[in-house]
């Protein structure tokens, strides 16, 4: 009997990027552990979390990297992007500035990551209905122009988190297989 480790067909490195406080760490723990941690930043220093899922009947281990706060100091280095097959580019639907910075993050990816990297644009905190500052249509338009996939999510409620990660992993699979 093979162990789960032996059955894993692929390991995909995915990086999570975007402005500070948009919910990157919470999205990651929602997907990796199905947790939302009220005491945020408890994962500081942790470099990545993993979750193994089935994609096209193959076991794929997603190794998802968190900047652990480094984005505050613009210190996200090329080592962070090295080998990444996918990126979750996160903004906060209640913070216009975090969406205005998305183009800069795309430039950063195009400069440091592999040309074939699959990018998923994520508008997070979609649960905050009363404080929305970014219409979904703006993001849809940007995503179409830049060839990105797009989902709105809530790491708090969990809404769309699983579909967004699974779509990214499926698209990576289609690129590498
Ligand atoms: P990071 O700096 O991008 O890693 O952001 P964090 O994951 O630390 O989240 C920043 C803050 O936003 C924390 O107070 C979280 O509790 C909160 N937060 C994260 N995701 C959501 C969400 O989907 N909805 C709401 N309402 N708050 C969220």
Automatic annotation (TrEMBL):
Going by the entry's taxonomy, the superkingdom of the source organism is recorded as Eukaryota
Q: What GO molecular functions are on record for this protein?
A: GTP binding; GTPase activity
Task: State the family named in the UniProt similarity comment for this chain.
Answer: Belongs to the small GTPase superfamily. Rab family.
Q: What is this protein called?
A: Ras-related protein Rab-11A
Organism equals Salvia splendens (Scarlet sage)
Taxonomy of origin reads: Eukaryota, Viridiplantae, Streptophyta, Embryophyta, Tracheophyta
Q: Which residues of the full protein are shown?
A: 4 to 180 of 220
